[in-house]
Specification:
The complex is a heterodimer. By secondary structure, chain A is α+β, with helices and mostly antiparallel strands. Chain A contains two helices and four strands; from the N terminus they run E-H-E-H-E-E. Chain A has a single domain, classed as Translation Initiation Factor IF3 (2-Layer Sandwich). Chain A has a four-stranded mixed beta sheet, with helices on one face. The radius of gyration of chain B is 19 Å and the shape is globular. The mean pLDDT of chain B is 92. The chains are: A alpha+beta, B alpha/beta. The interface between A and B is medium-sized, with 15 and 16 residues.
Chain lengths: 82, 336
């Protein structure tokens, strides 16, 4: 599952097997620990995560750099912007 | 702050005092209050918390050294569960809306809870406030039943049994069976259904008045059942309710002030709501003996009362010093 973008992330969290709202909650907790400008990769498999994580990232002023679908997994790359 | 052993706890939960509110009583109508903050962790919720833990232990669900108790709560249940479960040797995680008062969060941390704060933007389709906390607590506990136990006070029969086996019999005994009306605030429905079921078994003529909050309220511990769904625990026995009273923020805060000035009682907002409902119902009768549950005292509401002009900080401090009904408990209230 590794690809070029993995090398650019400062943290990877795997929330596969977890359901709404826990993937967003784990994302929020990890984002609070990062520094501005850091990038994080989230791997999820709850289909609702696509909407939930994307919305949370946008509402909270961070940057959603990419969302990639691979089999049943969703991979989000997020940049902490504030 | 008093530290408790597990055997102390069993002794000290319940058997809270009943006092007559003499400045409100008249020749033919008497008012009484059951002061639930005399429980070790400062509220009526000690009963439900202890019964839920005890039942889970008896059913073999909880295992010391392994189980983590997780519960969504906006206040007293979280405090009671954390205090009691910690004393009994369990770890506790409380899921709490981020808007809950700083005083409450501080108490939970001092008691040793791990706190997960939820915000309304986590997963908007599950609702707001406590509904977000309920969803997260379920999401954390459901996939990990070997570690997590969520008592779920909204659907746990032990919550009903706590009041059927303790609060109801205590009131019946303390009043020598002489009461005409029973009043309590409603959140989970455990207090009202458990207590009222017992009281009506002793005397089916006892009238039961359920107190709910107005919409968009500030009365911690109460719910408004147009705004929030009625919990399953309440739905199962809602027929025990004879009448409903919806308390406003203003009249509840007004009664908090009246109880302080006339009875030297520093109560929480939900007790103000119960007092308002007792006076309202009493107006319709020529005689009666009314008793209400006063769920908690005012020690967690300093900032709320200051913000809404109930008491300024000087008045509040004076009440804290002068109050004759604030026992030392195991609940670590802020001194600031």
């Amino acid at each position: 599952m590794n690809n070029a973008s993995d090398d650019l992330t400062d943290k990877v969290i795997d929330v596969r097997g977890l359901f709404c709202p826990e993937p967003v909650f784990r994302t929020k907790m990890e984002m609070e620990r990062l520094h501005i400008g850091d990038r994080i990769k989230i791997v999820a498999d709850d289909p609702a995560s696509e909407e939930d994580i994307s919305r949370w990232v946008n509402r909270n002023g961070h940057e959603l750099l990419s969302v990639r679908k691979a089999d049943n997994d969703l991979e989000f790359i997020i940049k902490k912007a504030k | 702050m008093t530290s408790l052993t597990s055997s102390d706890l069993i002794e000290r939960i319940g058997n809270t005092p009943v006092i007559e509110l003499k400045s409100f009583s008249t020749r033919n109508i008497k008012f009484y209050a059951k002061l639930e903050w005399y429980n070790p962790y400062g509220s009526v919720k000690d009963r439900a918390a202890y019964w839920m833990i005890k039942h889970a232990e008896n059913d073999g669900i909880l295992k010391k050294g392994k189980s983590i108790i997780i519960e969504p709560s906006s206040g007293n249940t979280g405090i009671a569960l954390t205090g009691i479960a910690s004393a009994l040797g369990y770890k506790v995680e409380i899921v709490i809306p981020d808007k809950v008062s700083t005083e409450t969060k501080d108490i939970l941390r001092r008691l040793g809870a791990t706190i997960h704060e939820t915000s309304d933007d986590l997963c908007p389709r599950v609702g707001a406030g406590t509904d977000q906390s309920i969803a997260l607590a379920k999401a954390i506990s459901k996939p990990r039943p070997d570690v997590y136990y969520m008592p779920n006070q909204y659907d746990n029969e032990a919550n009903f049994m706590a009041h059927y086996e303790s609060t109801g019999p205590e009131i019946w005994k303390q009043m020598d069976g002489r009461l005409t009306h029973f009043f309590t605030g409603c959140g989970t429905g455990g207090t009202i259904t458990g207590t009222a079921t017992y009281l009506k078994e002793q005397n089916r003529n006892v009238k039961v008045i359920a107190v709910q909050a107005q919409k968009n309220h500030l009365l911690q511990g109460l719910r408004n059942f147009e705004e929030s769904a009625m919990p399953d625990l309440f739905i199962r026995r809602q027929q025990v309710v004879d009448a409903w009273f919806t308390a406003t923020n203003d009249e509840s805060f007004h009664m908090v002030k009246e109880l302080a000035s006339r009875e030297n009682l520093l109560v929480g907002p939900s007790s103000g709501a119960v007092m308002a409902s007792m006076l309202n119902v009493a107006d319709k009768f020529d005689s009666g003996i009314m008793i209400g549950i006063f769920a908690d005292d005012g020690r967690k509401f300093k900032s709320l009362y200051a913000e809404h002009g109930v008491f300024n900080l000087t008045e509040y401090e004076r009440l804290l010093r002068a109050n004759t009904y604030l026992p030392e408990t195991a609940c670590p209230y802020s001194r600031n």
